[in-house]
Design goal:
There is one protein chain. This protein is mostly helical. It has one domain. It has 8 helices and 2 strands. Strands 1-2 form a two-stranded parallel sheet. The longest helix has 22 residues. The two termini are about 30 Å apart.
Amino acid sequence: MSLDQLYAYPMVLKYLLQTNCRVIYLNREDRLSQVLSLMKAKRTDIYHFRKKTIEEKRYAFDKQRVREILAQTNQWEKELLQKLEGKEYVHLNYEQLFENYNQSVDMIRKFLELPKINEYVYSNLVKGNPKSLSEWVANLDEIRREIDN
């Protein structure tokens, strides 16, 4: 579940924390990329890609809305991590996962008490925004100035 879904359905997290459920928290180091990518997905209604596409389109975003969503995401994460204090969980970021995929899968499988595997399975999903933000966000400098203020 995403942070916004956990916030929208707090009973899910409450239930998970009351059970012997194992939590794996996956986030992004680059929170701005996370927010802009989600805003683009909501705008285009395209959340996943199964093949690489070359898209030259640039998107402009409402800088105040980006700042608000970024602040809200940071707040939700802070609240989640406070609720997870004292619980056994794995915290992994997206960048780590794909930089050290096999090692990350091994760590998760160990946490879940699953046997080690010799052959790894890779998703057929590809990054929806493989380019740097400056290549697909038309008003990136304006957004960064807004966030820095």
